[in-house]
Structure formats: structure tokens, C-alpha cells
Amino acid sequence: MAAAAEAMPARVAAEIAALPEPRGPMRRLCGDLARRIRLLAPLLQQLEDALPLADALGAARDLLRAVHDGSKIYQAMRGDDLLDRFASVNRQIQLALDALPYNTFDMPEEAQEQVALVHSQFKRAATRTDPPDAQLSKDISSALADRTFDPLVFTRISEKLQLQTMADIKKESVALHEMVISSGGEPDGCVEEMSSLLKKLKDCVITEPPVPETLAARSASIKHRSPIIPDEFRCPISLELMQDPVIVSSGQTYERSCIQKWLDSGHKTCPKTQQPLSHTSLTPNFVLKSLIAQWCEANGIELPKNKANSRDKKAAKSSDYDHAGLVSLMTRLRGGNQDEQRAAAGEIRLLAKRNVNNRICIAEAGAIPLLVNLLSSLDPRTQEHAVTALLNLSIHENNKASIVGSNAIPKIVEVLKTGSMEARENAAATLFSLSVVDENKVTIGGAGAIPPLINLLCDGSPRGKKDAATAIFNLCIYQGNKIRAVKAGIVIHLMNFLVDPTGGMTDEALTLLAILAGNPEARAAIAQSDPIPPLVDVIKTGSPRNRENAAAILWSLCCADVEQTRAAKVAGAEDALKELSESGTDRAKRKSSSILELMRQAEEV
């Protein structure tokens, strides 16, 4: 029974997604309802038993089918009942979502934010506020009253009802006939008027001269049939559908290859916002990538395959060393004395830093397992060279698997614990680079990397602290590592950075707290550290990015505990949130608006 319940909401949502594109005067309401339900996909994947939501989605499916199959003329002339049904279905889904504690579910923060946004949209849609189409009502009244034929009036009516071909007219005639039969004769006493309007529209379609289909018309038809790519799925640089979306430090998402070219050209700013980038690390946007994949599957679109491998083969044909030179380097790494190994590792470090061709050729020559062995060297300089060479090699995507396959992660973690400061810094950067691959996040966390990364975050050099923060952030995209970080005591250190901005780690602290706050254990730890005053201070006076992250953290706290909401209001957050909801980043506006709504709700309790 539980398995059936689990599948039910997702199955009903899939049935809704499979419905044809809405047509007629209710198409906007139908499209909005279907779109909101599609955006609940991350939540539906989490549910084990949600019969109220399944019932509500079933009501939505039945309504959408009824509108699709029903008379478009009737919907235009007697649409009040349908508008009430749309409001009722939206209300039913809203109430079902009210009863679900989805903010405690094991979902990424972006997915939780998406569900919360859709929840608020259902709440607004539950109150019917849409006025009828005044122009359409006026045109229909004119068409029924006048004996004269005004082609402009009938053209507007046929366009809005989407009754523009003889096939459309025939389908509408069948729909009217079936409605009369099902209602037992005379639905709302308007059959005669509807039949009269249908006849006039039919005459309009017949009398319109046929237009020969030109090449441009056929192209326009094909374009119309192609699905429109949502703006949020397009790379802001190329305007093409993204296949590997990544997040830069400004919070914007780009196609990896496009933003990498931008960065490789020497740019230090976000292309979209022109905001200076605090670092050039690229974090995969897994939530958006999943949504794009779902959209592509629903629309029958296949993402283009990555062409990196073919480019790599061409690149590997040339490097800064010929084959004999590489063989000599490998020989010195493998069997030389300590001085020879140190020099060879240093040479590889520099070569691997220089270009992608060198990274490919060095890896193919067999350097990676030899460098992994040198991570255990008792000579500090050799160890520094080895870990930094692995860092530079890991920049090339295909080398990551070779490094992990050589059992490098436990040894890199050991360098992170006991190496020199330079070695620890580069060990943290290497772990970050490897953690770009999803499964490596699990392996690195399981190898015990989180506690020594937190140690580097607290006692490292300025660069070491930044490297540690970046690595921890990427690792904590995996939920299990959030729990490891909380158990290792990261929250109190981050709050200390927040309270004492002189350490220069405020940006990193807020970024890490924002990603941790989506986890219940982390959120509880944050709540116990008196977070409201420093968060409110940042919302009032921080940079745009920091205000956004502070609002995101505060939103997570307020969603979980009404007392935190009240504390934020007492601390004077309301005015700052109102200002942020008008002038902040898009995400900051959403978060601050949601918190203000929570404050209003808290007053009513």
C-alpha cells in the first residue's frame, strides 16, 4: 500500500505533464497550473505517503482534461464556474502542501526554495482574482447582437478561442453536442447563442481566402512546434540550452565551457552582473541540471554530447616535452634518489600548470600513481611538489578518475593533516578539484577530510582558509558531508567569523552557513548559536551577495521555528527585509519576501 501511495503523486503529475498544450480562453490558467505541478517534481520524489496531495493533483488533472475536451465557446461565455474550479483546485493543492513539512526533507536548498516558491504561488492562486477578458466578452456580445458581419470582431474571437480552421470548428461542434447530451438538454440556457456564434465563426473560416503556404510560413510553423527553451535554462553568455551548468561566486549560473573561456581570457567579473568574482572556482548546479534533463525528456530533446574527449585527443599530440623527455621524468620519479625525485616532481608541477596538453601527456606517461606515492615522502618539499602537481593535473577532467583510482584521496587527507602550510593549502585545493565529481564527494567525506579542512579553515594562512572554505562548500553539496561538518563543530567557527569580520572570512562564513542551513541538524546547530543579531546586521549593511546569503540562512531558520521569526522581528529585521525585497538580488528578493510573509503569519498566531 505504501509503495502505491508513493508512486501515486508522481504518476498523476506525469499524467498532467503528458496532457496536450492548452488551447482556448482558459489556456493561461491551464498552463500556469500544469507548470506549477511540474515544478513540484523534487518534492514528489521525496514522498512516501501523500494521499491528500495525490487527491489534489488528481482533481487538477481532471480539471485540465475537462478544459481541454470542453467547448471553448462555453468556456468564454460561461467561464465563471471554471474559474471557481481553478481556484478550488489551487486551494486544495495549497492545503495539501501546508500539511507537508517539506522544509525538513532531504532535498538540496535550491529544490526546497523551488518548492516553497511554488507553494506560495498556489496560495495566491487559491483566491480567484483574474477578471474576465473584457475585450472577448465585448466581441462575443457584439457578434451575437449585430446582424452585420464585422471580420475584425470574428478574427479576434477565433484567435482567442483558437477556432481558426475547419478542424477546430468540427471539434468545437462535437464538444458542444456532447455537453448538451451530458447536461440533459439545455446547459445554462445558452445553447442557441453558442450554436449561433459557432455558425458565424464557421462562416468566417469558410469565407477567409486560403493563403498559400510559403517557405517562411512553413519555417514559422516548424518554429511554433518546437518547444520554447525557458530563459533560466539558457546560458547568459551563449543563450543556448545548458548541458553542464555551473555556479560562479556571484551566484549566477553559466554553461561550464562558456564561463571557463571567459575566465581564461583574464576576466575577473561576473558577465551578467559585472560583480567582481571573489574566486574563480566553478560549482556544478545539480538542481538546475536535473530540471533541464527533466524538461528535455518531456519535450523529446537530446542534449548534445560533450566533445571534450575528441578535443583532448587532438591536444595530446603536442606538449612541452617529447616522449623521451617524459620517459626520463618518469624514471627519476620512480627510482631516483630523494633529490632527483624532488626535482622531477617540481618539474612536473610546473609543466602541469602550464597547459592542458601537458596535463594529458603527463598522465598518459604514468605520472599519477608515482606522484601519489610521493605524497608519503618524508621530505616536505617533495610532498609539496607532489600534491601541487596532482592539483594541476586534476584540472583536466579525465585525470580526476585516474587520481582517485590510484588511491590518492586518503594520502591527500593525510597531507592535509600533517603537511606544511603550503602542502595543506594545495591538498585542500586538490580535494576541491576532485570533489567536482559527485561520487568523489562521498569518498572524500568518508576518508575523514572534513575535520582537517575545518582546522585549516580556522588556523590556516589567508589563502589556506579560502581553499578550505571552497573545498568544504563543494563537499557539503552532498547531504552526508553536511552532517559530518556539523559534528566536527564547523558552525561555531563560522559564527565566530560572522561576529568578528576583521578576520576577512565573512563572505565564506555566510556562503557555508547558507548551504548548511538546508540540513535539519545544521539548522539546529545554527539556531543554538544566537544567529539572529549578526544575520540582521549583515542584511542591513552587507554586500549584495552577503545580504542574499544572510536572508537565505534567516529564511531556513524562520521556516523551522516561529520563535526565530519573532526574534528576527524584535532585532529590527523587518525594515531591512522590506528594503532587500525591493533592491536585492533576485534570490534575496524571494527570501526576504518569504520571511516577511512568515512574520505576518507569526503575528496572526
TrEMBL record:
EC number: 2.3.2.27
Reaction(s) the record says it catalyses: S-ubiquitinyl-[E2 ubiquitin-conjugating enzyme]-L-cysteine + [acceptor protein]-L-lysine = [E2 ubiquitin-conjugating enzyme]-L-cysteine + N(6)-ubiquitinyl-[acceptor protein]-L-lysine
Keyword Coiled coil (UniProt): yes
Renumbered ranges of ARM repeats: 366-408
Gene3D superfamilies for this protein: Leucine-rich Repeat Variant, Zinc/RING finger domain, C3HC4 (zinc finger)
The protein's annotated pathway: Protein modification; protein ubiquitination
Pfam families xrefs: ARM_PUB, PUB10_N, U-box
U-box domain sequence ranges: 228-302
Record keywords: Coiled coil, Repeat, Transferase, Ubl conjugation pathway
Class in the EC hierarchy, top level: transferase
Gene Ontology biological-process entries: protein ubiquitination
InterPro entries: ARM-like, ARM-type_fold, ARM_PUB, Armadillo, PUB12-19-like_N, RING-Ubox_PUB, Ubox_domain, Znf_RING/FYVE/PHD
PROSITE patterns from the UniProt entry: ARM_REPEAT (PS50176), U_BOX (PS51698)
GO MF terms held by the record: ubiquitin protein ligase activity
CDD domains: RING-Ubox_PUB (cd16664)
UniProt name for this protein: RING-type E3 ubiquitin transferase
Native source organism of the sequence: Urochloa decumbens
